[in-house]
Write a structure and sequence with these properties.
Blueprint: H1 14-24, H2 31-42, H3 53-65, E1 69-72, E2 75-78
Antiparallel strand pairs: 1-2
Helix pairs in contact: 1-3
Length: 81
Amino acid sequence: MILPTEHVRPDRSLLGVGAEVLAILVRPMTISTLWDGIRSRRSGGEPSAVLDYRWFVLALDLLYTLGAVNLDGDLIRKVQP
């Protein structure tokens, strides 16, 4: 679930979804803008590439727990190392 396994493809793992979020998060964004970015990025792919909103939120939770993103008001910001 968190990491890809033989039964969980990388684009379905929380770490994989989190990597997509970080790739899209080039500037501070609202959650809805970030969600729209993920959906548009995956819209041209196969049906299994469709991402559930709850899975997206879990990936954000993981990134926050790891210290990769912060919430600043209503904006999600990538933490710079």
